[in-house]
Amino acid sequence: MIRLPNATVLVTGATGLVGRPLIDLLLAQGAKVRAVTRDARAAALPEGVDVVEGDPAGALDGVSSLFLNPRALGAHPDPRTVTAAADRLLSLAREHGAGRVVTLSALNVDHDLDEQPSRLRGEYNKETEAAVTASGMEWTALRSGYYAVNTIGSWAAQIRAGDTVRGAYAAAAWAPLHERDLAAVAAHALLTGDLAGERPVLTGPRALTQQEMIETIGAAIGRPLRFEEVAPEAARQGFLRGGVPEALADGFLTLQARSYLQHDLVTGEVERILGRPGLTFAEWATEHAADFRPQPPQTSRA
C-alpha cells in the first residue's frame, strides 16, 4: 500500500451520492479535503473541508489526487464538450502536481451506446474514463453496477401509495451496490496505489430479483410488499407518464430485460479491495426506510 504523503484530495461532486460519504472517509483517514460544489453556502460540509465554489480548475493548487465525478463536468448534449472539459481539468491538475486521479464510471461503458441510458442525463462515463486513462497520471476507473439508491426513484412513490409495485421483467436481477461501499473503494484508490491502472467492476454482495428487493424493502418498513409483473409496454408508459424521457425509459427497460448483460452479477471486487463483505441491500433498505414511508402531511402556520 503506497499512501501519498500529506495528501490533499480534490473532490468534485462533493455533495452528491458518492462525494459526500467519500469526504467523511477521507477526513477520517487523515487526508486534507478540498471540495468543489455549485453552492458553497448550502453544501453543509464538515469543518476542516476547504470548500470551493464553481469551476474545479481554479482549485488545484497543492492537490495531490483528484476524484472526478462525470456529472461535475456539466450536462451537455454533445459529449465532445464533456471530453474537452475533462481533458482541460486533467491537464491542469497534472501541471499543478497532482499525481493520481480516480473517476466514477459504469460497468456498461463498453456496451453499445443505446445500452448506456445514463448518457441521456449527461453522464458521459465512457468519455470521462477515456480522458482519465490518457491523462498521464496514475488512474483508477470505478465501474459501478446498479446503485441501491436507484430503487427510490423507481419504486418509492408506488410503495408510499400501496403494497404493490408494478413493473416489467419480474425475473430481472441486480446486485444493488451501497453508495458507502463505492465511496470506501474510492477513498482507498485515492489514498493508496493499490488500484492504479485498474477498472474494478463494483457490485453489491448478492444478486436479487425485483421481487426479492421489494420484499427486503417491505421488511425494512414493516409492511408486506409484492411485485406485480406487467407488460414492458405498460411499464414504458408508466415511465413516460412520470416524466422519464422516452429514450431513457427504453434504455433502462433494455438493461432490465438483460439484467445488465451480466452472466454473473456479483463480482466480489468490493470485498477484495476493502477486505470485508460488501454492505447488503437489507442494510441499505433499513438505513433508507424513511424514503419509502408515506410522508407526514405538511401543517400550515397561520
Written description of the protein model:
- The chain has 302 residues and is α/β, with parallel strands linked by helices.
- The protein has a single domain, classed as 3-Layer(aba) Sandwich (Rossmann fold), CATH 3.40.50.
- Helices cover 37% and strands 15% of the residues.
- The protein is built from 11 helices and 11 strands.
- It has helices at residues 19-28, 40-43, 79-95, 125-133, 150-161, 179-191, 210-221, 232-241, 246-257, 269-274, 281-287; strands at 8-11, 32-37, 50-53, 65-68, 100-106, 138-144, 164-167, 173-174, 201-202, 208-209, 226-229.
- It has a 7-stranded parallel beta sheet, sandwiched between helices. It has a two-stranded parallel sheet with strand order 7-11.
- Helix 3 (79-95) runs parallel beside helix 4 and helix 8 (232-241) runs antiparallel to helix 9 (246-257).
- The protein is globular and about 55 Å long.
- The mean pLDDT is 90.
